[in-house]
Structures are given as structure tokens and as C-alpha cells.
Amino acid sequence: PDGDGDDDVNRNDDVNVDGEAADAGDNDTKKKKRSAPRKKAYRPEVFENGSQAHIFMDQLRSQKESFLKETQFSPQQYQVAERAFNYLVEKCAKESRSRPLTIAWEKIKEAGIVPSNDTLNVFLYVTSTMYATGFFSNSLSRALTRSPAKNSMSAVMSILGSGSGSSRDLDNHEEESEKDVIDFPTELAIFHDMLYTPTEKSVSLRVKRMVSKGDASGAQDLLDSFPSNDVAKLRTYLPILKLYCEQNNVNSALKLFKRMREEPCVILEPENYILLVSTLAENGCFSNDSVPIECAKDIGYENECGPNLFNELLNEMSEDVLEISSASARRLHNALVVGFESAKTMKLPKPIHLLAGVALNNEPAENDELVVSRVSIANKTGLCPRSGMRLRLIKLDKDHRSQLHSQLMNLSGERYQEFTEKRKFSRHDKSYAAKKLNDFSDWLDKRKGKPFTAIVDGANVAYYMQNYDKGRFNYHQLQFMIDALESMNENPLVVLPQKYCTPSFKVMMGSQFRTQKLTEDEKDILDSLTRNGQLYRVPPNCLDDYYWMLASVSDQTISCKGLDLDIPSDNDVGRWPGARPMLVTNDQMRDHKLGLLEPRLFRRWTSCYIVNYSFAAFVGKESSDREIGFSTADCFSREIQSNESKKGTSWHFPVNDWDLDDRFCVRIPNI
């Protein structure tokens, strides 16, 4: 342990991939191919004299010596035992069996074996899903959290030495209180963290152990003791936050939550926000006359209590969360009712039973009323009947539009690179696809004439409902779509891959590929779109999706002349309200969702621009029904948003298991 080259500390695990032990006397005959030996990358503290880890390792060496003396094992036999345990752990992991490991762990401690980091991690993986409480006192846990001077390592080894070969009196365990029993996975985690760099799994187990004993501050101190953020994820923090909330420790809960929000590895869920906000609400923190939360200003909030702190927290929530559940809506409803029950000048609703839902209430609210209601928003105007507020259409701002533009450029280059490598093209310009997409962007900005207000995913429309044996890439469906959009005062542009603009091309219809040749009628449709400037041909080997996506964030500088193309909800020409240009497609964009924008911004973009359609499929140039249906883009955003008024700030939450236009409306009155 002192770095002098001791075999016990610096040796490698000599274990074959298949877990079999090598025969020391078999060098000349049965030589087996071995994997690279596993090095035991101990924590630096193991080699520091006087450190807990150093003393711990020294005690393990003493345990090993006692075991060898008692059993008369040779060093070779001891190595076979080590390999056998490695094999057992690997086998249990493959077969998802945990019970054999409880016995193995006792024998490992009895023999003073030091498993490798990998072996212990597999141990933790298998056993963390099982709660097998054994004869383990929490003296080990206490010993490892105190200073070295106060440690009694005999107490530590009294735990590690327990087992069938130990002289420990097991009857003493029965005298210990139930709260002193330490579970098997937690003991493994403590053992691991004494010797190796702590992992998120091992730290989470130790945190849960302390939380189960009601020690939230101790659990947080444990997290604070690790300099690396790699061990801190949502499941590591969440048990501590929940305990703070259960204990109504609003100061510590708010401080911890702020830290969680700033951790890059912590991805907060809607329920996490509702947990914190509801806890603060139940404790009356959003009342104007409530006791200030001491840490609020120190951690960056402008307000220490009252409705303004409520608004600050929900503003943060709206940046990270798209929607909530009906259970969360009920929780927040009841929490606010409880928190304001002492407000004599405020009209309060009744609490909701835990098994009941939030009732629909579309009646206009009174000025002094706490609004916590389910409401139906008018889908054509965005008007909330309860608060009287009109919900806004929140579009991508300039920075986010630029971000989407850049991402599309990058993705087009990456996709083209993958395509050329797969086809093994010997010569190609890696930036070809990005340059071509940039050419399209420049064309949109520099072209003259009327700006485009609808971008049509041409291939998507032409292939719609044509996947049968006699189906074809149908240009008549394209013309049908163009006519419908023009009748609604839209100026459409069709984006179409170059191959579909040639006299013949390969298509797959039904279960086989075949060659489609353009008819004279189809050639006339292409010629007409070209003459009218309503067709853009996507170059070969480029993905057309990126073109119609990019059109949505194009400024169309010259043709727009600085005008806003968006249509207000109260327009008098009968056009759909919402953002322009709309993107007409039934593409679900599953391949692009993660690569383009983070989820909140992706939803904002799709809800503003995407228009789905439906119509009866054409057979040739005929259709049995000449009606077309559109699922229009939103005229108000389907995300959490606020609207300020003299009556108070109104918040509207989309709820994932309510109707599409229903919202959970919250307003704390200004009184």
C-alpha cells in the first residue's frame, strides 16, 4: 500500500476472458490464449500513509494473511480462488442471478480478496436491483465517513471478516437495532469507493442509504465530497431533494434544486419541477406576506418569496419542460390551495381528491380568485375563457433560426459523407452537399417576385397512398396540392429531388422496384411548375428534407422586403392564422428530431410550421374524392407560457393526457 511494489497492491488480475484459471504447470503443453491483464487502478489515497483507504487496504492484507494461515492455502490456490470469484460474478451477470453473489461476497471478505474495479462494478450492477439485507452493521458506513484519527479499523474488519470462517459472534447482530442494518448493495458501494474512483452507481447507492435513514444533509455532504460531476445525475440527487421536500426544508430544497439545474449531467423532468414548486406552495412561500427563503437571492433569484418568486421558478420550468401530466396538475392545484388557505381576501377553490381529475372550468375568473383550472383554449383565436388572455405563438428567435440553419448545413455534409463512403466513391468534394444547400438558401434570399408562403415536400405528396402494385410517383397529386394551396391565397414552392424530374427513374411500389416513365401529362405538370418558378430541383445525392426544412427559416430577403409573412388570427381574408411559410408534409421527421434542436425548440419549430394533409389517393390522374384536408399549424404555442395583466400573471400548461387544446391555467391574483 505504500507504493513499494507490494504484490498485493500493484499486481494485475491474471484472468482469462472465459474466466478459466491458467494451470501453472502447463506452460509446455496446454497454452491458452489470455486476454490483457486487468490492472487495478486504485485511488491515489490507497498509497497515502494514514489515509482511510491506506488503512483499509492494510487491514485487507492482514485479513488475507490470516486466511492463508488458517486454511494453509498456497499462493497458487489463492489465485485460483480469486479467478473463480471473477468467473462467478461474470456468470451471474450474464444469467441475471444475484443470490449466489451474497455468498460469494461473504467469502471474498473472509479471504481478504481485493476484487478488481471491473469485477466490483459488475457486482454492483447485478446486486443493485436486489435488496438483500444481511448481517452487516452500519459501523462500516460510520467508519468510512469519519476522520482517520477517529477510525476503529477493527470495527471495519469485523464487518469484512464476517463469514463462515470468522470467529465473530453472530448473536451480537441480533442485539443491533433494525435501523443499523446495512443492505448488501450499499456495503459493496462503500467497499468500492474506498479503493477505486467512485462511480455514479456506487454513489447513488450510498446516497439512498443515507436518505433512507432521514439524513438528507449527510447525503448531500457525501455528494459534495466528490470533486467530479461525473457521479452526479438526476437519480443521484433526486432522493435528497425528495427528502428535503418531505421535511419541508424549503431553503435546502431550493438551494439543491438550483444546483441540480446547473449540473450538465442532470436532465430535469416535469415532475421534478412540480415537486419543488408544490412544496414551496404548500409552505406558503408564494404569499406576499410569507417568510423569505434565506438562500433565494444568494443563489440568483431576484425574489425571496411571493408571486414573483413563483413566476421566476415557472420561467425556469418553461425553459426546460414542454408539458406536465394530469397528476402534476392536480398536485400543483392542491398545493396552491393549501398554501393560500390563510389568505382571507382571496377566493379559493376546493382541494381535489387524490383519485379525481381537475374539472373543466371555462367560466371567467373573478379578480380576487386563485385560478387553478382546466380550461379549453379556442383553437382559432388562442383565447383562454378563464383568464381572458390570448395565448401567443412563440416562434424561434433569430439565434435559434440561425442555429437550425447551421445544423442543417452540418447535417447535410455529414449525410453526404456517409453516403459517399458507403458507395465508395473515389473522388468527391466533402463539402458538396453543404454548398448545394447553401446555394438554395442564397436563391431564396435573392430571388424576386412574391415570397413563398407554403413549401411542399414534393416526394412526400407524390408518393402519398401510392404504395400498391399499380401505384406510381403521382404528379397529379402534386398538382392537386398546388391548386388547393393557391385557392387559399398561398404561394407554394415544390421541393423535389432531381431524379423525379427526369424522363424515367426507379421507384419501389408494393414489393418491387420498377422503372417509371413520365407521361405527357406528367411532363406538362413539371413544365408548368418550372415556368411559374414553383419548383426547386434538389441536386443528386443530396437529401431533399434539409431543403424544405431550411426554407422555413429563410428570410427571403428581397421578395419579402422586410414584411412579416405570418397571418394573424383575426385576419379578414380567411387565411389560416399562423407562421409562414408553412411546410406541407406528412413526414414525422424521426430521423432528424435529435440532430436538429433540443426537444423544446424542435416542438416550437414543428408546431409553428408543419401542416399535415390527407386526401383520397389518385389512380393515374383520377381521384374518387376531390376534397383535401389539412391539419394546420398552431396559431398558439403548445408549450408552457405566461401572459401578464393587471390581474396577475397567467400561466398555461399543456397536459399530456388531456385534449390537445386543453390547458392547466394558473393565476395568483394581484391583491
Short description:
With 671 residues, the protein is an alpha/beta fold. Helix content is 43%, strand content 11%. Residues 1-38 and 131-179 have low confidence and may be disordered.
Q: Could you describe the 3D structure shown?
A:
The chain is an alpha/beta fold. The chain is 43% helix and 11% strand. The protein contains 25 helices and 16 strands. The strands form five sheets. It has a six-stranded mixed β-sheet, sandwiched between helices. Strand 8 (504-509) and strand 9 form a beta hairpin. Helix 9 (184-195) packs across helix 10 (200-212) and helix 12 runs parallel beside helix 14 (270-282). The longest helix has 26 residues, at 398-423. Mean pLDDT is 84; it is low at 1-38 and 131-179.
